[in-house]
Structure formats: structure tokens, C-alpha cells
Amino acid sequence: MNDTPPQTRIQARNRAVILDAALEVFAARGFRGATLDRIAQVAGLSKPNLLYYFRSKEALHLAILENLMELWLAPLRALDPEGEPRTQIMGYVRRKLEMSRDHARESRLFANEILQGAPRARPVLEGTLKALVDEKAELIAKWADEGRIAPVDPHHLIFSIWALTQHYADFEVQLHAIMGETDPFPAAEAWLERVFGAVLDPAAPPADRT
Amino acid sequence: MNDTPPQTRIQARNRAVILDAALEVFAARGFRGATLDRIAQVAGLSKPNLLYYFRSKEALHLAILENLMELWLAPLRALDPEGEPRTQIMGYVRRKLEMSRDHARESRLFANEILQGAPRARPVLEGTLKALVDEKAELIAKWADEGRIAPVDPHHLIFSIWALTQHYADFEVQLHAIMGETDPFPAAEAWLERVFGAVLDPAAPPADRT
DNA sequence: CGTGAATTTTACCGGGCGGTCAAATCGATG
DNA sequence: CATCGATTTGACCGCCCGGTAAAATTCACG
């Protein structure tokens, strides 16, 4: 699987620099909108030199995607079957929101990829991601059955967590246009605690069950 | 304001065809990723012919954005100060979700634009959109003050509605990878009613007010 | 059905794109 | 400090892109 283990010090450094620059540019422009010239420029290298480290634009994008996958799935992976349900889920929400604050570029890169049909990420989505989501959804369903959280649709709960947290990274420009210079994250954290607190509260079952 | 009123029948038809094709392509690939050749191909016209109707790629994209803005803001605009608060807000959620179902391309076009820094839409965001959001946020705040809905942060409530509903259009590929062929919208509608029902319920104030 | 305007097509251009290649330079090792 | 592989560069290629020019075609209307 690991095709090119970085050997020399120079290789390790330049690969890292390139990956960072590419993350920047891919996140801001999408795959087709990004250019190798610009990535090279941001990385402070010549384009042929960049292509010395990554065979092609495609290979570079794939390398980023692979690198990111672990980081991206970690919060959901950390959902602990042994933990207290509400604490676990609220912790997941908090970690995902921190992800949007501290790794906005990664979030936008994923958003770009998926928006444009996930031509490169689809295998990962259908493989690793689906397996992980199904596993955790089952866990959440169990918690709901046991009455430890309100009865919820586990998949849509997870989607909601993704949507609400990633929104703060992906649509930052829009929030900024509306809210001005204010840092939205403190308020966002309180708000999300409020929202999912209300949704998960086992004492308050679905409002209007007709 | 309206610079080029379509006069002949041919103009009206072709402009419409082009705008539809361009919506398709811009939504799927973003501005820089879209090409005039592809748009022309989808529209069933030659590229110079397309450029006969729209001076440039830029102008075409702007025309789409203008066309879309009304459609896009309509649901929020429809929030009625005279209506019953919860009905109004739940109606807004429902209309936004219908938007994601019936106008997914439009949603993805906006998402692309904003993700990539809204280089063309920023004026609208900071002008029309901000004004509208501020107005409706004030309305929601009033409702909350009057105790007719739970005390909420109006801006973050609106962002949440956007995030949750648009997610179903913008990240469709991801949902599809996880959920398979199932149409997510019926479940989504029930789920969102559940979520916002719980959040707005004035009987259940913020869980842990420290 | 002739005519002038509206529309469409063919041919093209300059620039930027992803990528290649061979030569130049660097750097670790003896 | 010589050597040889690792790294970097400059020059270049073929293609695609946004856009233009002008000729060819079609259309509305008298």
C-alpha cells in the first residue's frame, strides 16, 4: 500500500511542503480549478520539481485524500460504546466543530470533492466511511433502544452533526458576510450543545407524534 | 437594471437553454472547472453561438446568479411576522428542504461559489442577503422575547436551517454512498421536524443553563 | 420572394494548462 | 575533494481554454 516511503530528509520536507500547498489550493479552487503552477508557487518550488515528488496532479490529490482520511474519521471513530451516550455524542459534536475551526481547509477540500461528485473519493466513501457510519449508527440505535437517549434516526443524526459543524468551515465566507468580524465559534459551540441537547433528551420524546 | 430584455422568440428560448446548461455544468464543476465548450455541448449549441448570447463566461455566471437569487431567498422572505411563530419557522424549514430536493443544482452552484470564496456573489451576500437575514433574525428574536418560541440565537438558528437542509442537496453523493438507493427526503423531513420542534419548544428551555 | 437584420458556423488566436526531458546543480559518502 | 546518485532547473510540447472575426445561413416582414 505505501508506495513511496519518504527516505531522505529533503524528500520528507518537500513532500510535506507540497501537500500543504496543495491542500490550500485544492480547498480554495477545487480539483479542476487548481493548477500545478499555483501549487508550485505556493509551495515555493518549480513545477517540474513538484512533479518530481508527485507523478501527476491526480496522484497529488489522491495523496492528500489518503492523508486526510484518518484525521477526518477520527472523531467518529472515537465514539465509545462503553461511554455514557449523551457525553459521547456531545463530545463527537464538539470534536467535529473543533475540526471546522482548526482544519477548515481540509473541510473545504472534502466539500469540493463531494460537491463535484466525489470522482476520486467515492471508493473511500463507499468503503471505509460507510462501514464506520453503519457501525456507529447501530451503536446509537442501541442506545436509543435502551432509552438512554431519545429515539432518533441514527443516520440522520450523524448527517446533522456533519452538516451543522462543517457548515461553519465550508460557508465561512457567507457567515462572515452576515455576521461581520465576530468569531462565530464560541456561539456555535453553545448553540450546538443546545440543539443536540434538546434532540437527544430522553425525557422529551418526539414532540407531535401523530 | 434589466440590461438585455429578450426580444425575439429565438433569443428567449436559447437564453433559457443556455442558462439551464450552464447551471448544470457550473453546479457540477465550479466556475473554474466549468468550460464554455462543455456548456455549449450540453446546451446543444456551438461555443461562438453561446457567446453570441452571453459576452463571456463571467457574464453567464453572473446572469445565473441574478436569476437564482430571487428563488433562493424566497423561502426566508416568506417568513411572516403576522403568522404563528412555530408554524412559520417549520414552514421555512420545509420549504428549504423542498428546495434541496427540487433545486439541487442551484444549491450546489451556490455551495461551489461560496466554498471558493464567493468572488462573484459577495456583493449580494453582503447586501441583499445580510439585510434580509438581519430583518428576519430580529423577528425571530422578538418571538423568542415574547416567549412564543424557546429563547434561541436567531442567526445560528437560521444557519442551522441552511446547513441541515442544503446538506441533502450538496452532499447527496455522500448520503448516497452511505444510504444506498433510498430516497432520503421523506425521512429527512420527519427528522428536521423533530429537530427543530425540539429546539423551538418553549416548554423545554435550554437544557443546562449554567 | 426579396431583403436586411438576426442568428449560426467555420476558422482561428494567444495564453495557460499538465506534463516531459535533458542538462545542470547539489549533497552525502568515501 | 572526487564521485555518483538525488534534486532542481529551463526549455519545451501538445492540448484545451476563453474569446474573436468574418463569412454563411436563417428568419421576419413587406
Could you explain how this protein is built, in words?
- Two copies of one chain form a homodimer.
- With 210 residues, chain A is an all-alpha fold.
- The first copy, chain A, has ten helices and no strands.
- In chain A, helix 1 crosses helix 4 (57-77) and helix 5 packs parallel to helix 8.
- The mean pLDDT of chain A is 94.
- At the A-B interface, helix 1, helix 6, helix 7, helix 8 and helix 9 of A face helix 1, helix 6, helix 7, helix 8 and helix 9 of B.
- Chains A, B: It comes from Limimaricola litoreus.
- Chains A, B: Residues 12-72 form the HTH tetR-type domain.
What is the topology?
The structure is a homodimer of 210-residue chains.
Chain A: H1 9-33, H2 36-43, H3 47-53, H4 57-77, H5 85-102, H6 104-115, H7 122-145, H8 154-170, H9 172-179, H10 185-200
Helix pairs in contact in A: 1-2, 1-4, 1-6, 4-7, 5-8, 5-10, 6-8
The first copy, chain A, binds a DNA duplex (30 and 30 nucleotides) through helix 1 and helix 3.
Average of pLDDT of chain A: 94
Amount of helix of chain A: over 70%
- Secondary-structure class of chain A: mainly alpha
State which percent range the strand residues of chain A make up: under 5%
**SSE pattern of chain A:** HHHHHHHHHH
Distance between the termini of chain A: 53 Å
Number of alpha- plus pi-helical segments of chain A? 10
- Total strands of chain A: the figure is 0
Radius of gyration of chain A: 20 Å
Q: What are the segments of chain A in which pLDDT stays under 50 over at least 5 consecutive residues?
A: none
Major β-sheet of chain A, in short? none
The chain pair forming the largest interface, with residue counts per chain, is: A-B, 58 and 58 residues
Assembly context of the chains: homodimer
Estimate the global geometry of chain A from the Cα principal axes.
elongated
